[in-house]
Amino acid sequence: MRGSAHRVLALVRKELLAILKDTRSRITVFVTPILQCLIFGYAASYDLDRVPYVLLDLDHSGASRALVAAIDSTGTFERVATLRNASEIAAPIGEKRAALALVIERDFERELTAARTAKLQVIADGRNTNTAGTAQGYIGEIAADFVRKWRSENAHAAPPGVRVITRAWYNPNLETRWNMIPSLIGTITMMMTMLLTAMSVAREREAGTFEQLLVTPYRPYEIMVGKALPSMLVGLAQATSILLVAQLWFRIPFAGSYFMLYLGLIEFLAASVGIGLFISSISKNMQQAMIGSVIVLMPFMLMSGLTTPIMTMPEGLQHLTLLNPLRYAISMTRQIYLEGAGLGQLLPEMLGLLVIAAITLPIAAWMFRHRLV
Amino acid sequence: MRFPTAAAPVEIRRVHKTFRRPSGETVKALAEISFEAQRHELTALVGPDGGGKTTLLRMIAGLVAPDAGAVSVLGIDACADPQSVQERIGYMPQRFGLYEDLTVQENLDLYADLHGVGRQARTDIYPRLLRMTALGPFTRRLAGALSGGMKQKLGLACTLVRAPELLLLDEPTVGVDPLSRKELWEIVRSLVRESALTVIVSTSYLDEAEFCDHTVALHLGEVLAQGAPQEIAARASGRVFMASATDGTPARSLQARLFRHPQVVDALPEAGRVRIVTRDAAPPSDDADGFSATFESTAARFEDGFMLLFRARAGEVRSTAIRLERALAGEAGEVAVEVRELLRTFGDFVAVDRVSFEVRRGEIYGLLGPNGAGKSTTFRMLCGLIPASGGQLRVAGADLRRARAEARAKLGYVAQKFSLYGDLSVDENLDFFASAYGLRGEKKRSRIGWAKAQFDLAAMASLPSAQLPGGYKQRLAMAAALLHEPEILFLDEATSGADPLARREFWSRIGALSQQGVTVIVTTHFMEEAEYCDRILIMDAGRALAEGAPQAIRARAPRREGREPTMEDAFIAVVEASRGRAQEAVQ
Fold first, then answer.
1. Is the torsion defined by CA of B251, B252, B253, B254 positive or negative?
2. What's the whole-number mean pLDDT along residues B544-563?
3. Does residue B56 have a pLDDT over 50?
4. Most buried of A106, A277, A358, B473, CB within 10 angstroms?
5. B109 against A134, higher pLDDT
6. Is the pLDDT of residue A220 over 50?
């Protein structure tokens, strides 16, 4: 047993030396995640800023003017033209001068005062689905907020009921980034550790050193552990650096427990390293390992809930995401980071990751020795 | 720079070239090289790896520019106008770019297309090329499915498809079996004789220089000598002797002894005797130990002359004595490796076809054969790297495929590419392999110290192993394999790429290890190295063709031109006889 631990430690040490001695690999492993995190943080959010829109106010009332003032004062929307009739809408949208047309229907103020549903039409450029959807939702929220205020100020007409707005944060700018950055902890570390692991065995196979390992007294599971641990350590270091960027640069407050986060990360990294080792055990060379990892990473990212909610996917695909460690990692880091979730709440994710690691790691170990060459 | 209408197709004048290693240090690849290759002649660049042969050929092909000096090819300045040079020459690099997923014919067509060879020209040249290379019956076979020798012939045909004026061949016979080697040289010589082509070929096989008109002997980027092979050989004339022991000492032991003798420049076991080159024109006098041997003067070869020049440059032989720290258990003569009816198939393909042999403790046992003969597959089964499809094998009393991991601690393994971790230093490599074999603490430190002292590695301890010179890589690989004092040592093509001196040192160490009871199994494609073995097994196409002591195998070849047959003659005789039988069986 002690001999075994000794051998594994020697392998771990050798792997870390190989990663850390080379300047290029040091940069790849430790600088790229931070850069990726910054790029994702700024580029991959659905923030709206100065969205150009055109206004068609058919009501010309105090209420309609107040609503327009509310929209203009957010700074999110920029009115580029004020139209006189509906036939003028097509041109600015078609020519992409405006992303949105806001039409305040006749009798807007009267309907409001009568506590009936007032009509507001938002026409968006559907060629850019993301912006259109977010902007529409945003205008809806501004309008709802306006209605609430307007009614309380004009108390003569009590609302037919109280509409509860459950939004925790008013500013959707923050919301996308707050959701995005914690998800990156899982996404970026998965990319890096999977590639690192897949390549480390493939590199040894190409150099012939893997056979050299196989003729030493190493048992397959010792090689597996010796290959998995260094990648996991690197993954944890990367996760920590992303965590620091999230808190120190993007100033997203951490609500949960670090113990839970790292416990979850260890499980998640074991699962993704297991997949990396599995890919490398069936690859003949580094090229195959690289292509194999990229092929697997792509669907993992798309089906992780990082950019599109899993609930909107077709049902069959939703079941398929249960095989995806990244899905669990993203939902887990979001819950721990933003909600401060505890073990009870995270049980499904923890279990899912455990099962994936418990299947992929032993398969990889078995494949080391039994793969037909 | 304009050259006057050059007389010689290739003129190299005082060329220098240095390269920069990734680590920042500069390496001198070529220093003050000058030579000419004459029209319609076969010129050879001869010397061990790292001599600058490939750089020189690439320079002639206009692929590398010299730092200083002039390169004129077919009257063109190759530095100023490499494109015009490349349009008129044929260059076959060491790894010729055959498309393995295309057939022989498709490869030829592809290269004809690339060089813009017209339809009419193709119908003229294809039959000639296919006849010359004997590839005619295989035009529909995938290039990837050809043997090493056939691949080289196809590469040559693809290079010749546009009828170049000058042909450059970079080590065309590396990794090719002796039979195909002979055929390739016949093709090249007929090209010079019949097609009046000018050819420059590089080789690290010193015996191949004899086939050429002009030789340039290179070592570490410098010209040791140049001239006709007979002129180089003549430098050693009167100093070459065949030594035979009169007291029954095996040739191997006599060779080891003579090699360390101060008056001896080179010693090689050959045909049961030892061929030596001496410093003075007289056989060596008795040394302190005294040996009883008779010396018979013999004609000098190119290799003898080369070794004389080489040793003058390379310096003294380092100590090759090696002492194990523990005496190995077990009796001499007991069976250490036993292989019975060993079978290995890959789909329909039979890689190893019911091979049986036994190796006794302390023996040096050689597996010889061309690429694809099945020796590597046999080797990998013995080491437990791949399972056998049938038959039995026992190594140190166990089948390593099924035995517990500890059983593997009894063997040491040096792979073909000296599998080391290139980024890690010599010390780190040794440390890792020591731990892998379960050594730790004081024991580990002392074993690493022993290995560094025995293999003279202390001065290089902190250098990354990828930057070690070739001979040192091999020593480090050997050191790593001996740290745990294995009973059985597996060496896969362990001398390929090593210079002649390093190869001789290597065999001295192997001899010393075997005397101390280590069983050694070795594969090699250098036929003359079989002379160092106690017994050898010749394999071809997965089958064992002949087994026995080197002199018994040699006796199977006919005496030719009044000289003792060499191992290479014997090998060719055995393989040809077997292939002839196989052909008859088919008909």
1. positive
2. 83
3. yes
4. A277
5. B109
6. yes
Burial class (CB in 10 A: 0-12, 13-18, 19+), A65: middle
Cβ–Cβ gap B422/A9 under 8 Å: no
User: What pLDDT score was predicted for residue A261?
Assistant: 93
Is the CB of B423 less than 8 angstroms away from the CB of A21?
Answer: yes
Phi-psi region of B223 (alpha: psi -120 to 50; beta: other; left: phi over 0): beta
Instruction: Pick the residue of B382, B400, B404, B432 with the most A CBs within 10 A to test the interface with A by mutation.
Output: B432
pLDDT at B219 over 50: yes
Residue from the list A10, A21, A217 with its beta carbon closest to the beta carbon of B409: A217
- In whole angstroms, give the CA distance from residue B149 to residue A222: 41
The pLDDT of residue B3: 45
Q: pTM for the whole thing?
A: 0.76
Query: What CA–CA distance (Å, rounded) separates B395 from B411?
Result: 9
What's the confidence (pLDDT) of residue B405? Answer: 78
Chain B hits for A200, Cβ within 8 Å? none
Range in A273-277, B313-317, B534-538 the model is least confident about = B313-317
Q: Concatenated DSSP letters for B556-583?
A: TSPPBTTBPPPHHHHHHHHHHHHHHHHH
Nearest CA in chain B to A208: B419
What pLDDT is attached to residue A165?
A: 36
The lowest-confidence range among B42-56, B185-199, B474-488, B491-505 is B491-505
Cβ proximity of B199 and B167 under 8 Å: yes
Between chains, do A17 and B428 touch, taking CB under 8 Å as contact?
A: yes
Number of other CB atoms surrounding residue B443 within 10 Å:
11
Tell me what pLDDT residue A163 has: 37
Phi, psi of A216 (to 5 degrees): -85, 170
Q: What distance in Å separates the CA atoms of residue B13 and residue B56, rounded to the nearest whole number?
A: 12
Q: How many CB atoms lie within 10 A of CB B362?
A: 22
Which residue segments constitute the domains of chain A, with CATH numbers given? 2-30+173-370 (no CATH), 51-167 (3.40.1710.10)
DSSP strand E in A49-136: where? 51-57, 77-83, 100-104, 120-124
Residue B585 pLDDT: 67
* Mutual angle of helices B302-314 and B500-515, in 10-degree steps: 90
Q: Spell A281-316 as b/e; 16+ CB within 10 A means b.
A: bebeebebbbebbeebbeebbbbbbbeeebeebeee
Q: What's the CA gap between B137 and B561, in Å, rounded?
A: 34
Residue B66 confidence (pLDDT) above 70: yes
Sheet with B543-548, edge to edge strand ranges = B411-414, B488-492, B519-524, B364-368, B535-540, B543-548
Q: What is the CA radius of gyration of chain A?
A: 27
pLDDT in tens, A14-29: 999 988 888 888 888 8
Query: Does any CB of chain A come closer than 8 Å to the CB of residue B451?
Result: no
Tell me the chain B residues in contact with residue A372 when contact means C-beta distances shorter than 8 Å. 386
Which string of DSSP letters, residue by residue, matches B279-340?
SSSSPPPP-SS---EEEEE----HHHHHHHHHHHHH-PPPP-----SSPPPS-TTSEEEEEE
Contact call for A215 and B384, based on CB within 8 A: yes
Asked if A13 has any chain B CB less than 8 Å from its own CB, the reply is yes
Q: Name the least confident of A300-309, B205-214, B546-555.
A: A300-309
Length of chain A: 373
- B154, B104 in Cβ contact below 8 A? yes
**Mean pLDDT (chain B, rounded):** 86
